[in-house]
Design goal:
This protein is of the alpha/beta class. It contains 21 helices and 16 strands. The chain has an 8-stranded parallel barrel, surrounded by 5 helices. Helix 10 runs antiparallel to helix 11.
């Protein structure tokens, strides 16, 4: 039996744009998918709240009518509900004018409850498709129980869902073999993948091949440009190409390309989805993507720390999103307490009573170097490199606040790195290499902001702690919208991967203002170069 396509752009992509695709895009995407020959178009979600025009969250099926120019007989129009988040009392009997089928998604351990909801939907005349979220967690016995429940429900389809993007081929093979053997022949089997390990398309094609010799109908999910939460999904354009070339299908690729050219460019330029290292970590540990999003949005968490945080969680907790627990794990990981009394004593003896020049890595530390050199010659400050070693400077110390910046400096300027006295926060390392001075992270960082570990702010807090009075700063410029325009060394590892430059600038300005207001020892701060934060 030839597989058929289910496009879920407007449903899974709703996570990216908070459902607000806009009326033109919803209408246009549905129209182009109709033109392409897609058999099933998932148009969004049913929610308990009233529909807002331009949203792919609908309250009742009739809300979809405004986006359908003319309903096609050979297309099944679907929406999805969470098994426990939509009140079926809002759902009217199916009149055939808008929604034909409803997909019910339920988590592992709730298949009986999900199927019960599906039976209520069937009574109202809609087709029902079930989505078994995190199918990877199902044992063979669980899969048998799932199939038995679905067999007696009257549902049209059951989909395997790789919720965390954690499956490998052998995982999919086990699940497909068990369900194909146990499911009634008249129930279609589907597959919905996520791209956390760059395997979404490969697993989709493998799913198709596993069932290619059988009589069972199969359905594969995909979205335009892979649009979907976290690492995204299999891409409709790749899946359509495969189905046309390998499975004898005849989808109109021009219509798919038109949908991408006309509607998807706007979203891909303004929003981010798809494979990334953080979402690989989610797949590696079968972790809910909301945990990753929290660490990205609320802390500038390095990939190494993120992996350690997720690894430290109980497997059951990874599948949920308990933000209080996650915050505790984050603090436990980055604090890495050390006894830094000796290190602080040495710094206090060396630096108190001296003016300190912090050379931050902003572009002005390169473009205004003559001015900075003149200041150094006239004032003879202790020169401290902040999180980066720039060409042409003679430093007395280097302060490292970030593991990636520490490794970058060690690799790109090994001789300078080796000869410098280094001050290293304990979130980077806890054991000194040579005469490094390891300072407790908490003694240089003050929480209360998502990016509280800004290197210059940490340097100022440490200097205030050890009794420094006068500080000059260069290269504390502020972020430009293009990353390599912000730094003297454009290859420095990025510390703000979500590109929220304006928000980050305002946050640092607030932290800097708070520091100046509450500093105990630091009484004078002289900006040698122009700074957004001054």
């Amino acid at each position: 039996m030839k597989p058929i396509l289910l496009d879920c752009t407007l449903r899974d992509g709703a996570y990216i744009v908070d459902s607000m695709f806009g009326e033109a895009a919803i209408r246009g995407i549905i129209g182009k998918l109709e033109d392409s020959g897609a058999e099933i178009i998932e148009c969004g979600w049913l929610k308990n709240k009233e529909h807002v025009p331009g949203s792919s969250f609908y309250h009742v099926p009739d809300d979809l009518c405004r986006y359908l120019s003319r309903k096609k007989k050979n297309v099944t129009y679907t929406v999805m509900i969470d098994w426990d988040r939509y009140d079926l009392s809002f759902l009217p009997p199916c009149d055939g004018e808008s929604v034909d089928a409803i997909r019910v998604v339920f988590p592992h351990g709730k298949h009986r409850e999900g199927v019960t909801i599906g039976k209520g939907i069937l009574k109202k005349g809609y087709k029902v498709f079930f989505q078994a979220a995190n199918t990877l967690a199902y044992s063979d016995d669980d899969l048998d129980a799932l199939a038995d429940e679905v067999n007696g429900s009257g549902a049209s389809a059951l989909s395997i869902v790789d919720t965390f993007g954690a499956m490998y081929e052998e995982d999919l093979e086990r699940i497909v073999a068990r369900l194909d053997h146990r499911l009634s022949p008249d129930v279609s089997l589907g597959f919905h993948s996520h791209n956390n390990q760059q395997l979404s398309f490969a697993l989709t094609t493998h799913f198709i091949r596993l069932l290619s010799d059988g009589a069972r109908k199969t359905v594969v999910d995909a979205s335009l440009c892979g649009m979907g939460r976290g690492a995204g999904n299999a891409t409709t354009e790749l899946v359509v190409s495969y189905l046309n070339r390998k499975c004898g299908r005849h989808y109109d690729m021009d219509a798919i390309m038109d949908a991408i050219d006309t509607y998807m460019g706007y979203f891909s330029e303004r929003y981010k989805w798809g494979y990334s290292t953080p979402y690989f970590i989610a797949g590696l540990y079968c972790c809910h993507v909301n945990n990753i999003a929290y660490l990205l949005n609320n802390h500038r968490t390095s990939s190494r720390d993120m992996r350690n945080i997720i690894e430290s969680m109980d497997p059951a907790d990874r599948k949920k999103y308990d933000y209080d627990l996650l915050e505790k794990k984050y603090l436990d990981t980055v604090s890495r307490r050390v006894d830094d009394r000796d290190a602080e004593s040495k710094l206090r003896a060396a630096l108190s009573g001296r003016e300190i020049l912090l050379v931050a890595p902003g572009k002005s530390s390169l473009t205004e170097k003559k001015k900075i050199d003149a200041y150094i010659k006239e004032n003879d400050p202790v020169v401290i490199a902040v999180n980066a070693l720039l060409e042409g400077y003679r430093y007395d110390y280097a302060l490292f606040v970030n593991p990636a910046r520490y490794d970058y400096a060690k690799t790109t300027a090994p001789e300078k790195f080796k000869e410098l006295r280094r001050i290293v926060l304990s979130n980077v390392k806890t054991a000194a290499d040579g005469d490094e001075l390891i300072v407790a992270f908490d003694h240089a960082a003050k929480r209360g902001w998502p990016h509280f570990d800004n290197a210059v702010i940490c340097a100022l807090r440490l200097l205030d702690r050890i009794g420094v009075r006068d500080v000059a700063i260069s290269g504390f410029d502020g972020f430009k919208h293009v990353y390599n325009e912000s730094y003297a060394d454009p290859l420095l590892p990025s510390l703000n991967p979500e590109n929220g430059w304006d928000a980050l600038n305002e946050e640092i300005r607030e932290m800097f203002g708070e520091f100046r207001k509450n500093a105990v020892s630091v009484k004078r701060i002289n900006m040698i170069t122009e700074s957004y934060f001054a």
